[in-house]
Amino acid sequence: MNVNFYVTCIADIVKAGVAKNSVLLLEKLGCNITFLEKQGCCGQPAINSGYTKQALPGMKSLVETFEVNDYPIVAPAGSCVYAIKTYPEHFERFGETKWAERAKKVADRFYDLTDFIVNKLGVTDVGATLPGKAVYHPSCSLFRKLGIVDEPLTLLKNVKGLQLMPIHNQQTCCGFGGTFSVKMAEISGEMVTEKVVNVMEAEPEYLIGADVSCLMNIGGRLSREGHPVKVMHIAEVLMQEGK
After folding, report:
1. Which of 178, 187, 191, 200 is spaced 20 to 30 A from 37 at the CA atom?
2. Chain mean pLDDT for the chain
3. Percentages (nearest 5) of helix, strand, coil residues in the chain
4. Alpha carbon distance 164, 29 (integer Å)
């Protein structure tokens, strides 16, 4: 299957390993990857901060970029996928009807990595091996906004040797929320502190998630408190082959 890969800003700039493992995983599952170099930021920070009108040119550029083919578009971040799926309503709000129609065609082709693997490729076991105890954090964008709940858990439950541990208030926000963590830093800090308390009650070796931003937030708090927990994106976990 031919697939476009949307790298996202954070994966591109901060967590290149996530992008690399996502591509390798898709290739392992039989996909031919196309990387369109004109792709850019989805505009999520501006949209979330209320600067939607200023984000429109970038949104149009992204739509144009992915109109060059009709392949599915896969990204390793639910927050970016959700932002792009809201494009049509933003264009409509500013009277850009034709752009709304174009954006919908592109948005309908966007998939979170786990959603694509399970629901489009029909794969639930990628043959990964990672022994140890782990906690999975369901990001708000993936869980609440996109409704992707079971897909990442299904993939993780089929990782050989991995023991998923439940925690108190597992579905509670970690406090990142994009620009929320900057504008409401004190509240965000208390939220991630509570999240780490709940995570550490399970005494895991790994913290796993499907959104890099949440992992950076929780991982930063874990590191500052001196907890030896390895933070991994699900793409990195699914590429573990064991020894």
Report:
1. 178
2. 92
3. 50, 15, 35
4. 24
CA distances from 214 to 53, 128, 185 (A): 27, 23, 15
From residue 132, alpha-carbon distances to 7, 32, 95, 115, 237 in Å are 29, 32, 53, 24, 12
Pairwise CA distance, residues 160 & 135, whole Å: 15
Instruction: Compute the C-alpha angle 156/178/67, nearest 5°.
Output: 75
Residue 243 binned pLDDT confidence (cut-offs 50, 70, 90)? low
Do the beta carbons of residue 176 and residue 188 sit within 8 Å? yes
Identity of the residue numbered 115: D
Q: Which residues of 155-177 are buried (b: 16+ CB within 10 A; e: fewer)?
A: bbeebeebebbebeebeebbbbb
Which residue from 198, 210, 205, 199 is spatially nearest to 234, judged by alpha carbons?
A: 210
Q: Find where tokens 């502190």 sit.
A: 193
Please report where in the chains the tokens 């639930």 appear, as a residue. Answer: 124
On whether the CB atoms of residues 159 and 242 are closer than 8 A, the answer is no
pTM over 0.85: yes
User: What is the rounded distance in angstroms from the CA atom of residue 151 to the CA atom of residue 42?
Assistant: 24
